Protein backbone atom coordinates (compact mmCIF):
# COMPACT_ATOMS: atom_id res chain seq x y z
CA UNK A 1 0.00 0.00 0.00
CA UNK A 2 2.72 2.45 0.93
CA UNK A 3 4.52 1.90 -2.36
CA UNK A 4 1.31 2.66 -4.28
CA UNK A 5 0.83 5.84 -2.27
CA UNK A 6 4.39 7.03 -2.65
CA UNK A 7 5.33 10.15 -4.54
CA UNK A 8 1.80 11.54 -4.97
CA UNK A 9 3.26 15.02 -4.84
CA UNK A 10 5.76 14.29 -7.61
CA UNK A 11 3.04 12.87 -9.85
CA UNK A 12 0.92 15.97 -9.20
CA UNK A 13 3.77 18.22 -10.31
CA UNK A 14 4.21 16.20 -13.51
CA UNK A 15 0.46 16.12 -14.18
CA UNK A 16 -0.21 19.83 -13.57
CA UNK A 17 2.98 21.20 -15.09
CA UNK A 18 1.41 24.50 -16.10
CA UNK A 19 0.16 25.38 -12.63
CA UNK A 20 3.37 24.41 -10.90
CA UNK A 21 5.47 26.23 -13.48
CA UNK A 22 3.43 29.36 -12.80
CA UNK A 23 3.82 29.24 -9.00
CA UNK A 24 7.52 28.35 -9.37
CA UNK A 25 7.98 31.40 -11.61
CA UNK A 26 6.25 33.64 -9.06
CA UNK A 27 8.50 32.29 -6.28
CA UNK A 28 11.56 32.83 -8.49
CA UNK A 29 10.57 36.46 -9.09
CA UNK A 30 10.14 37.09 -5.37
CA UNK A 31 13.47 35.38 -4.60
CA UNK A 32 15.12 37.57 -7.26
CA UNK A 33 13.72 40.72 -5.64
CA UNK A 34 14.66 39.64 -2.11
CA UNK A 35 18.26 38.72 -3.04
CA UNK A 36 18.77 41.86 -5.12
CA UNK A 37 17.24 44.04 -2.38
CA UNK A 38 19.42 42.36 0.25
CA UNK A 39 22.56 43.08 -1.80
CA UNK A 40 21.45 46.68 -2.28
CA UNK A 41 20.66 47.07 1.43
CA UNK A 42 24.13 45.84 2.39
CA UNK A 43 25.75 48.03 -0.25
CA UNK A 44 23.94 51.17 0.87
CA UNK A 45 24.77 50.36 4.50
CA UNK A 46 28.45 50.07 3.60
CA UNK A 47 28.37 53.44 1.82
CA UNK A 48 26.74 54.99 4.86
CA UNK A 49 28.51 53.60 7.92
CA UNK A 50 31.71 51.79 6.87
CA UNK A 51 33.86 54.78 7.84
CA UNK A 52 32.45 54.73 11.39
CA UNK A 53 32.60 50.93 11.66
CA UNK A 54 36.35 51.06 10.97
CA UNK A 55 37.05 53.36 13.90
CA UNK A 56 39.07 51.68 16.67
CA UNK A 57 38.29 51.95 20.36
CA UNK A 58 35.42 50.83 22.57
CA UNK A 59 33.13 53.86 22.65
CA UNK A 60 32.42 57.35 21.37
CA UNK A 61 31.58 60.25 23.67
CA UNK A 62 29.33 62.66 21.78
CA UNK A 63 27.05 65.62 22.49
CA UNK A 64 23.76 64.80 24.16
CA UNK A 65 20.62 65.95 22.39
CA UNK A 66 17.81 67.74 24.32
CA UNK A 67 15.77 64.52 24.39
CA UNK A 68 18.65 62.64 26.06
CA UNK A 69 19.72 60.69 22.97
CA UNK A 70 23.04 61.07 21.20
CA UNK A 71 23.49 63.73 18.53
CA UNK A 72 24.72 62.55 15.12
CA UNK A 73 28.43 62.90 14.41
CA UNK A 74 27.66 65.49 11.76
CA UNK A 75 26.06 67.76 14.40
CA UNK A 76 27.84 66.82 17.62
CA UNK A 77 30.01 69.45 19.31
CA UNK A 78 32.20 68.35 22.21
CA UNK A 79 34.67 70.52 24.09
CA UNK A 80 38.19 69.11 24.18
CA UNK A 81 38.16 69.46 27.97
CA UNK A 82 35.57 66.66 28.15
CA UNK A 83 38.41 64.15 27.83
CA UNK A 84 39.75 65.14 31.25
CA UNK A 85 36.45 64.20 32.89
CA UNK A 86 36.36 60.63 31.61
CA UNK A 87 37.22 57.63 33.79
CA UNK A 88 38.85 55.71 30.93
CA UNK A 89 41.87 56.42 28.70
CA UNK A 90 41.26 58.46 25.55
CA UNK A 91 42.41 56.99 22.25
CA UNK A 92 41.87 60.12 20.17
CA UNK A 93 39.66 63.09 19.61
CA UNK A 94 37.60 62.99 16.42
CA UNK A 95 36.44 65.79 14.16
CA UNK A 96 33.86 65.24 11.42
CA UNK A 97 33.10 67.81 8.69
CA UNK A 98 31.41 67.61 5.29
CA UNK A 99 33.40 69.31 2.52
CA UNK A 100 33.82 69.69 -1.24
CA UNK A 101 37.10 68.18 -2.39
CA UNK A 102 38.57 69.59 -5.61
CA UNK A 103 41.39 68.53 -7.90
CA UNK A 104 41.70 70.43 -11.16
CA UNK A 105 38.21 70.91 -12.55
CA UNK A 106 36.73 67.94 -10.68
CA UNK A 107 34.88 68.24 -7.37
CA UNK A 108 33.71 65.47 -5.05
CA UNK A 109 31.59 65.65 -1.91
CA UNK A 110 33.50 64.09 1.00
CA UNK A 111 33.62 63.91 4.79
CA UNK A 112 36.83 64.83 6.58
CA UNK A 113 37.76 62.84 9.69
CA UNK A 114 40.29 64.64 11.84
CA UNK A 115 42.10 62.30 14.25
CA UNK A 116 45.46 61.25 15.61
CA UNK A 117 47.62 59.80 12.79
CA UNK A 118 47.81 56.42 14.55
CA UNK A 119 44.09 55.96 13.84
CA UNK A 120 44.45 56.43 10.08
CA UNK A 121 43.81 53.39 7.87
CA UNK A 122 46.85 51.97 6.10
CA UNK A 123 47.89 53.99 3.05
CA UNK A 124 49.67 52.75 -0.06
CA UNK A 125 52.71 54.87 0.82
CA UNK A 126 52.95 53.49 4.36
CA UNK A 127 53.64 57.00 5.69
CA UNK A 128 51.47 58.78 8.26
CA UNK A 129 50.11 62.17 7.13
CA UNK A 130 51.43 65.27 8.86
CA UNK A 131 49.68 68.62 9.27
CA UNK A 132 48.58 69.86 5.85
CA UNK A 133 48.34 66.31 4.47
CA UNK A 134 45.28 64.19 3.68
CA UNK A 135 44.74 60.50 3.15
CA UNK A 136 42.32 60.01 0.27
CA UNK A 137 40.02 57.02 -0.05
CA UNK A 138 40.44 55.04 -3.25
CA UNK A 139 36.94 55.96 -4.50
CA UNK A 140 37.57 59.71 -4.20
CA UNK A 141 41.10 59.48 -5.62
CA UNK A 142 39.82 57.63 -8.68
CA UNK A 143 37.01 60.11 -9.27
CA UNK A 144 39.32 63.09 -8.83
CA UNK A 145 42.16 61.54 -10.80
CA UNK A 146 44.50 62.30 -7.88
CA UNK A 147 47.57 60.34 -6.80
CA UNK A 148 49.93 60.43 -3.83
CA UNK A 149 51.91 63.66 -3.94
CA UNK A 150 49.21 65.64 -5.75
CA UNK A 151 47.53 68.69 -4.27
CA UNK A 152 43.79 68.88 -3.58
CA UNK A 153 41.70 71.83 -2.49
CA UNK A 154 39.15 72.08 0.31
CA UNK A 155 37.72 75.57 0.10
CA UNK A 156 40.75 77.85 -0.06
CA UNK A 157 42.97 75.31 1.73
CA UNK A 158 45.60 73.53 -0.36
CA UNK A 159 46.42 70.04 0.99
CA UNK A 160 48.90 67.41 -0.13
CA UNK A 161 47.74 63.84 -0.81
CA UNK A 162 49.99 61.76 1.43
CA UNK A 163 48.55 58.45 0.33
CA UNK A 164 45.55 56.46 -0.88
CA UNK A 165 43.77 54.17 1.57
CA UNK A 166 40.49 52.39 2.30
CA UNK A 167 38.86 54.77 4.76
CA UNK A 168 35.25 53.82 4.07
CA UNK A 169 32.20 56.05 3.72
CA UNK A 170 30.14 58.33 5.94
CA UNK A 171 26.53 59.14 4.97
CA UNK A 172 27.25 58.14 1.34
CA UNK A 173 30.34 60.31 1.02
CA UNK A 174 33.95 59.01 1.01
CA UNK A 175 35.96 59.63 4.18
CA UNK A 176 39.13 61.71 3.96
CA UNK A 177 41.55 61.53 6.92
CA UNK A 178 43.69 64.38 8.15
CA UNK A 179 45.28 65.49 11.39
CA UNK A 180 43.31 67.28 14.09
CA UNK A 181 45.22 70.52 13.52
CA UNK A 182 44.43 70.46 9.83
CA UNK A 183 40.80 69.60 10.56
CA UNK A 184 40.54 72.57 12.92
CA UNK A 185 41.84 74.86 10.17
CA UNK A 186 39.11 73.55 7.86
CA UNK A 187 36.36 73.73 10.46
CA UNK A 188 35.01 76.89 12.01
CA UNK A 189 35.34 76.70 15.79
CA UNK A 190 37.42 74.51 18.09
CA UNK A 191 34.72 72.07 19.22
CA UNK A 192 35.33 68.41 18.40
CA UNK A 193 32.73 65.95 17.14
CA UNK A 194 33.55 63.09 19.52
CA UNK A 195 36.07 61.54 21.87
CA UNK A 196 37.19 57.96 21.15
CA UNK A 197 37.91 55.94 24.32
CA UNK A 198 39.74 52.66 24.81
CA UNK A 199 37.04 51.35 27.20
CA UNK A 200 33.38 52.19 27.71
CA UNK A 201 33.22 54.97 30.35
CA UNK A 202 31.02 54.31 33.38
CA UNK A 203 29.67 57.87 33.13
CA UNK A 204 29.91 60.79 30.75
CA UNK A 205 30.46 64.46 31.63
CA UNK A 206 27.45 66.78 31.63
CA UNK A 207 26.06 67.50 28.18
CA UNK A 208 27.56 64.37 26.64
CA UNK A 209 26.60 60.72 26.27
CA UNK A 210 28.49 57.49 25.69
CA UNK A 211 27.80 55.37 22.61
CA UNK A 212 29.50 51.94 22.46
CA UNK A 213 31.20 51.22 19.15
CA UNK A 214 28.70 48.43 18.51
CA UNK A 215 26.00 51.15 18.30
CA UNK A 216 28.11 53.76 16.53
CA UNK A 217 26.17 53.37 13.25
CA UNK A 218 23.24 55.13 14.92
CA UNK A 219 25.36 58.30 14.90
CA UNK A 220 25.34 58.42 11.08
CA UNK A 221 22.58 60.79 9.92
CA UNK A 222 19.73 59.05 8.10
CA UNK A 223 21.14 55.54 8.40
CA UNK A 224 18.56 54.10 10.80
CA UNK A 225 15.61 55.31 8.72
CA UNK A 226 17.13 54.21 5.42
CA UNK A 227 18.22 50.79 6.62
CA UNK A 228 14.99 50.22 8.54
CA UNK A 229 12.90 50.97 5.43
CA UNK A 230 14.87 48.53 3.28
CA UNK A 231 14.72 45.82 5.94
CA UNK A 232 10.96 46.34 6.22
CA UNK A 233 10.62 45.85 2.45
CA UNK A 234 12.54 42.58 2.70
CA UNK A 235 10.32 41.40 5.53
CA UNK A 236 7.20 42.26 3.52
CA UNK A 237 8.46 40.25 0.56
CA UNK A 238 9.08 37.25 2.83
CA UNK A 239 5.55 37.48 4.27
CA UNK A 240 4.05 37.88 0.80
CA UNK A 241 5.96 34.79 -0.29
CA UNK A 242 4.39 32.76 2.51
CA UNK A 243 0.92 34.06 1.66
CA UNK A 244 1.31 33.31 -2.06
CA UNK A 245 2.59 29.79 -1.45
CA UNK A 246 -0.11 29.17 1.16
CA UNK A 247 -2.86 30.46 -1.14
CA UNK A 248 -1.68 28.32 -4.04
CA UNK A 249 -1.60 25.12 -2.00
CA UNK A 250 -4.92 25.97 -0.36
CA UNK A 251 -6.61 26.13 -3.78
CA UNK A 252 -4.68 23.14 -5.11
CA UNK A 253 -5.55 21.04 -2.04
CA UNK A 254 -9.24 21.98 -2.25
CA UNK A 255 -9.36 20.89 -5.89
CA UNK A 256 -7.77 17.54 -5.05
CA UNK A 257 -9.79 16.88 -1.90
CA UNK A 258 -11.72 13.93 -3.36
CA UNK A 259 -8.54 12.32 -4.68
CA UNK A 260 -6.80 12.69 -1.35
CA UNK A 261 -9.87 11.37 0.43
CA UNK A 262 -9.55 8.19 -1.66
CA UNK A 263 -5.93 7.90 -0.52
CA UNK A 264 -7.08 8.28 3.09
CA UNK A 265 -9.75 5.61 2.58
CA UNK A 266 -7.11 3.27 1.12
CA UNK A 267 -5.05 3.55 4.30
CA UNK A 268 -2.97 6.66 3.82
CA UNK A 269 -2.31 8.29 7.19
CA UNK A 270 -2.68 11.96 8.03
CA UNK A 271 1.07 12.15 8.67
CA UNK A 272 1.76 10.69 5.22
CA UNK A 273 -0.46 13.22 3.43
CA UNK A 274 1.02 16.11 5.38
CA UNK A 275 4.57 14.93 4.72
CA UNK A 276 3.87 14.35 1.02
CA UNK A 277 2.31 17.81 0.67
CA UNK A 278 5.21 19.50 2.41
CA UNK A 279 7.71 17.67 0.22
CA UNK A 280 5.78 18.88 -2.81
CA UNK A 281 5.88 22.45 -1.47
CA UNK A 282 9.59 22.15 -0.71
CA UNK A 283 10.34 21.03 -4.26
CA UNK A 284 8.42 23.98 -5.69
CA UNK A 285 10.05 26.43 -3.27
CA UNK A 286 13.55 25.07 -3.84
CA UNK A 287 13.24 25.15 -7.63
CA UNK A 288 11.84 28.68 -7.66
CA UNK A 289 14.34 30.05 -5.20
CA UNK A 290 17.40 28.53 -6.84
CA UNK A 291 16.42 30.13 -10.13
CA UNK A 292 15.44 33.39 -8.46
CA UNK A 293 18.61 33.57 -6.34
CA UNK A 294 20.79 32.96 -9.41
CA UNK A 295 18.98 35.71 -11.32
CA UNK A 296 19.18 38.01 -8.28
CA UNK A 297 22.95 37.52 -8.04
CA UNK A 298 23.30 38.19 -11.77
CA UNK A 299 21.15 41.33 -11.53
CA UNK A 300 23.08 42.61 -8.50
CA UNK A 301 26.41 42.01 -10.22
CA UNK A 302 25.22 43.84 -13.34
CA UNK A 303 23.89 46.77 -11.29
CA UNK A 304 27.06 47.11 -9.19
CA UNK A 305 28.51 49.48 -11.75
CA UNK A 306 25.84 52.11 -11.08
CA UNK A 307 24.54 51.43 -7.54
CA UNK A 308 26.29 50.30 -4.35
CA UNK A 309 26.02 46.51 -4.15
CA UNK A 310 27.49 44.15 -1.57
CA UNK A 311 26.97 40.46 -2.29
CA UNK A 312 27.75 37.98 0.44
CA UNK A 313 26.90 34.42 1.37
CA UNK A 314 24.60 35.63 4.15
CA UNK A 315 22.88 38.15 1.84
CA UNK A 316 21.79 35.27 -0.39
CA UNK A 317 21.27 32.38 2.03
CA UNK A 318 19.43 34.25 4.79
CA UNK A 319 16.52 35.56 2.68
CA UNK A 320 16.24 32.30 0.73
CA UNK A 321 16.13 30.31 3.97
CA UNK A 322 13.53 32.71 5.35
CA UNK A 323 11.36 32.34 2.26
CA UNK A 324 11.64 28.56 2.45
CA UNK A 325 10.62 28.39 6.11
CA UNK A 326 7.73 30.84 5.76
CA UNK A 327 6.61 29.17 2.54
CA UNK A 328 6.51 25.76 4.21
CA UNK A 329 4.55 27.24 7.11
CA UNK A 330 2.03 28.69 4.67
CA UNK A 331 1.79 25.37 2.82
CA UNK A 332 1.36 23.45 6.08
CA UNK A 333 -1.63 25.61 7.07
CA UNK A 334 -3.16 25.02 3.65
CA UNK A 335 -2.56 21.26 3.61
CA UNK A 336 -3.59 20.52 7.19
CA UNK A 337 -7.31 20.74 6.28
CA UNK A 338 -7.14 17.57 4.20
CA UNK A 339 -5.38 15.71 7.01
CA UNK A 340 -8.23 16.39 9.46
CA UNK A 341 -11.29 15.85 7.24
CA UNK A 342 -13.17 12.54 7.39
CA UNK A 343 -12.51 10.69 4.09
CA UNK A 344 -16.15 9.51 3.82
CA UNK A 345 -17.41 13.06 4.18
CA UNK A 346 -14.90 14.32 1.62
CA UNK A 347 -15.96 11.64 -0.89
CA UNK A 348 -19.59 12.73 -0.64
CA UNK A 349 -18.80 16.33 -1.63
Describe the structure.
The protein has 10 helices and 10 strands. With 349 residues, it is of the alpha+beta class. It has 2 domains: 169 residues, no CATH class; 165 residues, no CATH class. The N terminus is likely disordered. A 6-stranded mixed beta barrel has the order 2-3-8-4-6-5.
Q: Which characteristics define this entry?
A:
elongated; 2 domains; six-stranded mixed barrel; single chain; disordered N terminus; 10 helices; alpha+beta
What share of residues are in beta strands? Answer: 15-25%
- Could you give a short account of the major beta sheet? 6 strands, mixed, barrel
General shape? elongated
The total tally of domains equals 2
Topology:
Blueprint: H1 2-5, H2 8-15, H3 17-53, E1 59-63, E2 90-103, E3 106-114, E4 133-137, H4 138-144, E5 151-154, E6 157-165, E7 169-170, E8 173-178, H5 180-186, E9 194-197, E10 208-212, H6 223-255, H7 257-265, H8 270-303, H9 313-340, H10 343-347
Parallel strand pairs: 3-8, 4-6
Antiparallel strand pairs: 1-9, 1-10, 2-3, 2-5, 2-9, 4-8, 5-6, 7-8
Helix pairs in contact: 2-8, 3-6, 3-8, 3-9, 6-9, 8-9
Summarize the structure.
Strand 7 (169-170) and strand 8 (173-178) form a beta hairpin.
Amino acid sequence: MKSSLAFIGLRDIAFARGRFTLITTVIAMMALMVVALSALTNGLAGQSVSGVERLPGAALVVQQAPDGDATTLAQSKVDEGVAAGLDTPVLSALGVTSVQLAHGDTMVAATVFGAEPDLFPAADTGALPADGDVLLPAAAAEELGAEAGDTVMIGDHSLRVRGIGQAGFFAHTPVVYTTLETWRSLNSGDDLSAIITTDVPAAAPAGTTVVPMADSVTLVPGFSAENGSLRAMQAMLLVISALVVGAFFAVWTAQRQRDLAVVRAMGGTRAYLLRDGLIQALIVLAAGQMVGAALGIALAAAASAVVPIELSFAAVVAPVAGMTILGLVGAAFAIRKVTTVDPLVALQR
